[in-house]
Amino acid sequence: MRINGARALLECLKQEGVDTIFGYPGGAVIPIYDEIYKFKDIRHILVRHEQGAGHMAEGYALATGKVGVCLATSGPGATNLVTPLTDAMMDSVPIVAITGQVKTAAIGTDAFQEADITGITMPITKHNWLVKDVTKLPAILAEAFYIARSGRPGPVLVDIPVDISRTMFDYEPVLSVSVPSYKPTFEGNARQVKRAADLIAEAERPILYVGGGAVNAEAHEEVLKLAELCNIPVTTTLKGLGAFPETHPLSVGMLGMHGTAYANYAVHDTDLLIAVGARFDDRVTGKSDSWVPKAKIIHIDVDPAEIGKVLQPDVPIVGDVKHVLRELLKVLKPQVHDEWNAKIDAWKNEFPLCFAADKKLHGQAVIQRIGEVSNHQAIVVTDVGQHQMWAAQFYKYIRPHQMITSGGLGTMGFGLPAGIGAQFGQPDLDVYIITGDGSIQMCIQELMVATIYKLPIKICILNNQYLGMVRQWQELFWDSRYSSVDLEASPDFLKLAEAYGAKGIRVESPDQVDAALAEAKAYTDGPTVIDFRIAKEENVYPMIPSGGIVEDMVVQRPSDLAALDPYMESELVEDDISVLAAKS
Amino acid sequence: MVATEQHTISVLVDNKPGVLARVASLFSRRGYNIESLAVSITDNPDVSRMTIVVNGDESIVEQITKQLHKLIDVSKVQDYIGVPIVARELSLIKVNAEVKDRTALMQLVEVFRGRVIDMSEKTFVIEITGAADKIDAFEQLLSPYGVRELVRTGRIAMARGPRSI
Question: Chain A contact for B75, CB < 8 A?
């Protein structure tokens, strides 16, 4: 088939199973857009800023497990992808970014809208390519998809000069990919698997520490089987939420800086930490050399560079997490850890997640209610800040790909576009975007896309008129000097919603929450923006200060339990407290 | 805590544009200065071999070598720490060579098994190979005559014995 490079690009995308791409045109990609105009098998979503395209591709990938694709022109279009690519690199999200480039002859001459995007994105992509010969384009794209989705997934970028897009050549589909220098390890070392099984058999207080790698590897069933077979409690990282149902009695929720107190006590006390696709992030470990002081460590990860990066494991297993867990399950025998689980249950009862049950509107209550009204089935996409931590603590996730958030990079502005991408990928599921009054303003322009495509996403702004997380740190660690965190002067989000053709609802007191959520749920003709005016100076608890240890943890405690508190600093709550049942 | 040691690392890479930048950036990202770097093609023209010398904390260098391994263009990485190796570098030195000094200079060159490969009315260009300390010593002995210009290739290395990368 004799076609030009632009058409070949679309043929390759189609062959990879791509049906939706997110992009924005410009001079260097006009040939590609001309083919998109004629090509009916791929839907192109016109975003309002290339950063939105990148995050939509991420949201699409995270909600579906497929590769997300975004497209931008050269120069500023390409550089606007830098944040989403970094985000995807940090969180191992498989996306393919296609960028236009100035014509081959002009590369390196500071031509109009030229940027060395392969140079710029070298440290923030798994790999990237500059296509200099159109006949190599199909093979490069096949490699790009293979590398993005295999091993530890991640973003890749293919930079296509405008003349390459226009050059005619004889296109042959590429049917198989082989990259000799890239062979991700799939099977775990059998001897190490055996050693891990021995450690699990001997352990008295084991705990599974499950990260985003388990979600990427679709290993949730194996995690569940392992937990149940050996009666092992499970804590997940922020990116691991949903890899194990939080409604399960063995779930201890999220761990780390804003994890549950009982998860942090459990990892402090465990004698065997079984890390499954988790990378010992500093927001999880705090002071890493004091973390899990009594434990041996089994570390299962597809990326050999993660092994020993932070803590040296006793048993390292490099391989596909799902496959390794299956191998482990073949040799493990049923166990019970009644004493250990009873100890954890006691912590759950003593240090539950909670918030004040006063007359104020609390972000935690809003999220808890969203969890209930959506029957814990919706996709929840967050931005970054206090609302993100509350969304992690209070929704209760039950399946993988349900919680979509920017974990490693912590990108404010991620939520709205990622939520749009998630809704495109999962049109039959409800999508709730939990965001803040700060974050929502960082990519608000993409609201237009949701309106145009009548996406029934629910954008829940937990509006405390502050950059709440920074304010919390300033309150706790900087003597309440609130420097540059005041967002009282913000747009009227209802009018903003209206301007974008979305539905807007304001909620100012707890008794309005249910009606607002019901109204939003009933409105399926487009996006709904709900402006929740929450308590202004609420903090996220529990909290282990940055670089701290479990003894530094501050919890918010029900007043009737406060006296029992042995050594922790507590934020006492005067009124009655609403306690979220830790067990279900 | 962990001693800083000198690591000699061999890396086999695809002979393609951009590979050097990818490799180098993994060191610079951790604030590590590459002490020396030698790159050229191997017996297979599609494959280049880099020899990198870097001083650093063992755990960080180990992390860097693991990251090197993850680069798509990198096929093999070997840190020769604790492995017996033969290592050489080559140096070209342009030194003042007045007629009265030439005999002495020729003797020096002979002792160090170097060669004079270019000669002008006032200068020699001397080629010398060896381990870094030998070249350092030679350079020092030449300095009284006035070294006008000096270039070193940086270390190249391979393991002793039948073992190959």
Answer: yes
